[in-house]
Amino acid sequence: MANVIVVGAQFGDEGKAKVTDLLSKNSDIVARYQGGSNAGHTVVVEGETYKFHLIPSGILYKGTICMLGPGMVIDPKAFIKELEGLLACGQDVSLLKVSTTAHVTMPYHLAIDAAEEDSRGSLKIGTTKRGIGPTYADKCDRIGIRMEDLLAPDVFRSKLEWLVPKKNIILERLYDLPPMDAKQIFDEYIAYGEMMRPYICDTSAIIFQAVKERKNILFEGAQGTLLDLDHGSYPYVTSSSPSAGGACVGAGIGPTVIDRVIGVSKAYLTRVGEGPFPTEQHGEVGDQLRQVGKAWAEVGVTTGRPRRCGWFDCVLGRYSARINGLDCLAVTKLDVLDEFDQIKVCIAYRDTQDGSVYRDLPAMAGAFSRMEPIYETFAGWKKPTNHCRSFAELPMQAQKYLDFISSELDVPVAIVSVGPKRDQTIVIEDPIHGPKRVLSSVIN
Ligand code: GDP
Ligand code: IMO
Ligand code: MG
């Protein structure tokens, strides 16, 4: 029995879905705990590419319960589209569960997210325009619609009759947009509720029972630590808590049930949307990272935007190890570095104002923008790694590169991914049953 959190250790898109899919083989439950359809998770199995936004990546295993937890925000339209896509390719969705208390992304959330983003000018965040911020804002304001409301027509109707006129003031007066009709929204969303009824339940109670039966539970993070509302590069963050601490609140379980935290990092770094990125590479190096072979590989799964690319950043990596209490790392996309003559890793930042050097992220407002990276440069291995299935098979320079990252972050690398397919994976140590790193280093 082990209960494991898989968390993005960078700015999202680290390859969490591939790692979740791998580990789901031995999981009884896979639960998403935050975020919504802003996520774009890719799994490649037997030549098929599956893209998930709301449904956990564990769904491809028959017999695994997949949950959309209470901490999520769910756009019913997006959920039903994803569900229909899975049914069309013959996947079993009978063990899908949706929390009664997850919040619903409503049409006015989508409209406000897009309008707000367009009105920000130079202050724009680069959101996915999936209504995430406005849905979580309503949740905090205690005026949100929850999944359970879609199953209770009288409650839902009275909430909408009060809410929609308020939202219309924002839409019409602030953004010059047409008003929405409460009755029309009611009819459409109550129908979605009926379609989703078979899946809606108390997911936290199911997890608690599974814990008592010593089953294996995997908590699948969306986004990444540096997009965390509290701990990320605020305000260029998402509106939820992707970091490991968020799994307990977002899934409705106590921290005592968590056994391991696995951080997923690319062997380099990418970011979609606005915000600081000290190791970002423009020009040739950035383009080379964005491509695999001749194809543009680093493109957002949800929005189709090209991802910003740069070198691995140990300052951010150490921060992520701290915020999440990482036990081990899964390093993905090592193969993308195969062709490089030289590979750089940022080991510290230098403050361009006063020359101070920081190995750890300085806790100062606006500090990010003043930091320039200090790099260690590695010779590239210039050999394909796609076929490697053990650490020893990797070129010596690639082994050195991984050892360096591991020692700089003080976190063991348990998994290395050398391609998008399930079997393009190297397991260095058991990511689930290895020693508790944080605990053992405290005891020692
Ligand atoms: P997630 O949001 O963290 O699940 O990651 P995404 O699915 O948004 O982006 C990761 C992309 O990298 C997907 O297209 C994966 O199929 C792909 N991928 C994952 N691992 C590897 C790898 O080791 N090598 C390569 N070349 N691609 C990978
Ligand atoms: P996965 O789960 C990468 C980014 C957006 C934007 C910021 C806020 O695939 O890793 P939002 O729509 O959430 O209000 O946008 O967060 N963002 C992601 N970046 N991967 C994601 O998800 C992301 N989800 C949101 O680009 O910068
Ligand atoms: Mg993604």
Q: How does the SSE layout of this entry go?
A:
Layout: E1 3-8, H1 16-24, E2 29-32, E3 41-45, E4 48-52, E5 65-68, E6 73-74, H2 76-88, E7 96-99, E8 103-104, H3 107-119, H4 132-140, H5 153-174, H6 182-196, E9 200-201, H7 203-212, E10 217-220, H8 245-251, E11 260-266, E12 269-271, H9 283-290, E13 291-292, E14 295-296, E15 308-310, E16 312-313, H10 314-324, E17 328-332, E18 342-351, E19 357-358, H11 367-370, E20 371-379, H12 396-409, E21 413-417, E22 425-427, H13 437-443
Parallel strand pairs: 1-10, 1-11, 2-5, 2-10, 5-7, 6-8, 7-9, 11-17, 16-18, 17-21
Antiparallel strand pairs: 3-4, 12-15, 13-14, 18-19, 18-20, 21-22
Bound molecules: guanosine-5'-diphosphate (GDP), 6-O-phosphoryl inosine monophosphate and magnesium ion.
Polypeptide structure, described:
With 444 residues, the protein is α/β, with parallel strands linked by helices. It has three domains: 3-99 and 200-261, 3-Layer(aba) Sandwich (Adenylosuccinate Synthetase, Chain A, domain 1), CATH 3.40.440.10; 103-197, Adenylosuccinate Synthetase, subunit A, domain 2 (Orthogonal Bundle), CATH 1.10.300.10; 266-443, Adenylosuccinate Synthetase, Chain A, domain 3 (Alpha-Beta Complex), CATH 3.90.170. Helices cover 32% and strands 20% of the residues. The protein has 13 helices and 22 strands. It has helices at 16-24, 76-88, 107-119, 132-140, 153-174, 182-196, 203-212, 245-251, 283-290, 314-324, 367-370, 396-409, 437-443, and strands at residues 3-8, 29-32, 41-45, 48-52, 65-68, 73-74, 96-99, 103-104, 200-201, 217-220, 260-266, 269-271, 291-292, 295-296, 308-310, 312-313, 328-332, 342-351, 357-358, 371-379, 413-417, 425-427. Strands 9-7-5-2-10-1-11-17-21-22 form a ten-stranded mixed sheet, with helices on both faces. Strand 3 and strand 4 form a beta hairpin. Helix 3 (107-119) runs parallel beside helix 5 (153-174). It is globular. The two termini are 26 Å apart. The mean pLDDT is 94. Bound molecules: guanosine-5'-diphosphate, 6-O-phosphoryl inosine monophosphate and magnesium ion.
